[in-house]
Design a protein that fits this description.
The chain is of the alpha+beta class. The chain is about 25% helix and about 25% strand.
């Protein structure tokens, strides 16, 4: 291993493996980089005032003029007196006729109607509310319990709110790779980082036309191998994130008779060896403090957790492999001696 901490391959195998010890300093660096896991472009977006669109239903109040406010009668519900924005973006209103309203903010439309009514009514007082937000939607797909489109309203909708309404299917969702598609660009978000950054979901505002896709967790697993009680793939299906300690625990823990606590490795990038050298994280698990580190080190889907064998175990295995050969040689020698004497 060179002084830079990289284990370099032989000339025949030019791959490089970076060996990194799991230490408090590494965990601090990982926590500091969590903000970088959230695309900055999403954090920078700030919602604009709501703009009226086709399909919206408006309730227009003109004070002291119920005939303009409630043409269906004041006894009717608000929806019955709502005015629908037509597919071409226009709205019919008394004294104004057919007026283009799509693309206007609520305040812009209020000022527009107030100015036009002033020709017929002295000092009109106009108020406008959107009672049906139907023109702007956010689409949700994938491993959610509810995938109905959600409306973008005058109150900004955040990613956290949208996920909360849709409800993640914990048994099927791959929370490490949510995809938010916006304006032709796909942003990949690891929801497991939100456990350590609780305010981030409410700092990401959604805009009309956004598509949120949460993939299914059919093949997302961590592979626990070596000297553990039950070597097996460990799925992410019921948790938002998985620590190294949890992964080993689900495999039954370290084998107390054969494992080497010094040789606990997490191999990352093993599936893409041709393009990217793998990174190997090592945990010296011989002390309780080390397991505290392991509880904060988060594994990722596709990681391989390997626990090496203790020195005595390796020695016993070598002996067990040699003994049968030695027995055969001894038996053959004994048979040869008997045949010649």
């Amino acid at each position: 291993m060179s002084s830079d901490g990289v284990v370099r391959g032989t000339p025949k195998d030019s791959s490089e493996i970076q060996l990194v010890d799991i230490t408090p300093q590494l965990l601090d660096a990982n926590r500091a980089s969590l903000n970088a896991a959230v695309p900055q472009a999403l954090l920078d977006y700030k919602p604009e005032p709501y703009r009226i669109g086709p399909g919206d239903q408006l309730y227009i109040t003109v004070w002291d003029h119920p005939e303009l406010t409630s043409p269906a009668g004041v006894q009717q519900q608000t929806q019955a007196n709502g005015r629908l924005v037509r597919s071409d973006g226009t709205l019919f209103y008394p004294y104004l006729g057919s007026t283009k309203v799509a693309g206007l903010t609520i305040e812009e439309l209020r000022q527009n109607i107030t100015a036009k009514l002033a020709k017929y009514i002295e000092k009109p007082q106009v108020d406008i509310n959107v009672v049906g937000f139907n023109s702007q939607k956010v689409v949700l797909q994938g491993a959610f319990m509810k995938t109905d489109p959600q409306s973008v309203t005058a109150v900004p909708l955040t990613l956290g709110q949208a996920i909360g309404i849709a409800t993640v299917n914990a048994d099927q969702a791959n929370v490490s790779d949510l995809v938010l598609s916006r304006d032709g660009h796909d942003y990949h978000i690891d929801l497991s980082t939100f456990a350590n950054l609780p305010n981030i979901p409410n700092d990401i505002y959604l805009k009309a036309g956004d598509r949120i896709f949460l993939p299914y967790n059919d093949t997302k697993e961590v592979y626990v191998m070596g000297e553990v009680m039950r070597p097996a793939p460990v799925p992410f299906r019921t948790v938002a994130y998985l620590s190294l300690t949890q992964a080993i625990g689900r495999a039954g823990g370290l084998n107390p008779n054969t494992s080497s606590g010094k040789e606990v490795y997490v191999i990352r990038g093993a599936k893409n060896l041709e393009n990217t050298p793998p990174k190997v994280f090592q945990l010296d698990a011989r002390s309780p403090t080390a397991f505290a580190l392991g509880d904060e080190f988060m594994v990722k889907p596709g990681d391989v957790v390997f626990v090496g064998a203790a020195g005595i175990t390796r020695w016993n295995r070598v002996i067990s492999q040699l003994l049968p050969s030695a027995t055969i040689v001894t038996s053959a020698a004994a048979a040869n001696y008997s045949a010649t004497h």
